[in-house]
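User: Could you write out the 3D structure of this protein bound to adenosine-5'-diphosphate? I've included everything you need below.
Assistant: Certainly. Input first, then the structure.
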Amino acid sequence: MGYMPVIGLEIHAELMTRTKVFCSCETGFGSERNSHVCPVCLGMPGALPVLNQKAVELAVSAGLLLGCEITRTTRWDRKNYFYPDLTKAYQISQLYAPLCLGGGLEINGRFIRLNRIHLEEDAGKLVHERNVSILDYNRAGVPLIEIVTEPDIRSSDEAVEFVERIRRNLVYGDICDGKMEQGSLRVDANISVMPEGSDVYGTRSEIKNINSFRFIKRAIEFEIERQIGVLENKGRVIQETRRYDEASGETFSMRSKEDAHDYRYFPDPDILPLFISDEDIAAIREKLPEPPHIRFLRYTDSYGLSAKDAETILSERFTADFFDAAVKNGADPKAASNAVRGELLRCVRESGGNEIPIGAEDFTKALVLAAKNAITQEGLKTALSYMFFNRADLDTAVKVNNLLVSEDAGLIGTVISEVLAASPDIVSKYKDGNQRVFSYLFGQCVKRLKGKALPATIDAELKKGLSEL
Ligand code: ADP
Ligand code: MG
Ligand code: ZN
């Protein structure tokens, strides 16, 4: 019998606020353990939380980017459970009146609905070392949004693509830095399987805290196969929480799954409900960047870029912003796209950074020089990487590297004669009818004429030189 997987995701994203959600401790990652803590985030009795306005703004921004309805009256609830990383023995979360409802994203023509987005606090971290476990509360109280989907996802690939899209929106909106390896974005995957053609969902298991795209795919695939195996052997899938083991690629049972009532949720009496007005929402909407899927349509429909090229430029916000600034400056979109995806992304990779330190105006002018053949395509690359690594302007880059093509007929003739004289064997092969060796000779000339002649001229002159031999 065939089975259809049913998947719903809970995506936890840490918000990029300077301070925590209910106190004024800093949120920075990688600081000395327990250096960003106070009575509030350590959960001391009697300490009172104060809501961080910026966290609410970022959560609302996420809701707007993902098409949610923003709840006008939102409240916070206590989710009670004990674990050493949660000193209060409750997490401040939202169950009954979350900030955002509904919304969703289209993935390859299928609309994946969101159930809700709510704002909550992160817990601390348990760091296990050889014989001890160390508690680090720097993360306790860092604002999180939890983005919960409806069980609309049908494959591991779709799940990965969905998380990528969510991540991209959050990064574009300066809402979350999206660094999965640092735990800024973590995914719980709920998975069940049902017989093909059925519309009754099976019992699900929930795999907690998956922290890379590769593991999302593998964990889901393993879990689908495991559940099918259970059903094929006439067993029953039990509702439980599982963890994914990266080393073995398998999931293991942690505990039977709790229901909402197990947490004894109740309204937190320390935090008042929050009323969000139309004006508040309009002000937040005003500050939102153009979302990536809208930019995608602009790139493909108005600029004629291929979907693949548009995706490459959109994969990071700084490359998309750089590209947009150039086009706004009058750059030809196709030429700009080629340069960004080629030489500039190469420079970015080489530098290991995440910026393109070249002015839009200089970049545009460089493209124009290349279009007019005033510099060669090779010269354009040289100019771009020189500007990139030396933070130089275009004039300097062109001068220092001597890039302006001044077609010096004398020089071209001399170089061609030298190249031909240096490789008599190859020349004779060519003369014997081996056309393929031409590219070697051509390459030698290009190298030695470094931007002093256009490729078309070299091609013509070299052929002429060979025919005269
Ligand atoms: P909880 O808060 O207890 O984890 P929810 O009912 O809010 O439970 O659902 C959490 C996630 O589980 C949601 O993403 C939802 O889409 C998903 N889900 C619910 N039922 C199923 C199912 N039968 N199979 C797969 N996923 C499911
Ligand atoms: Mg859950
Ligand atoms: Zn604090």
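Residues 4 and 146 are 26 Å apart (CA to CA).
User: Perfect, thank you.
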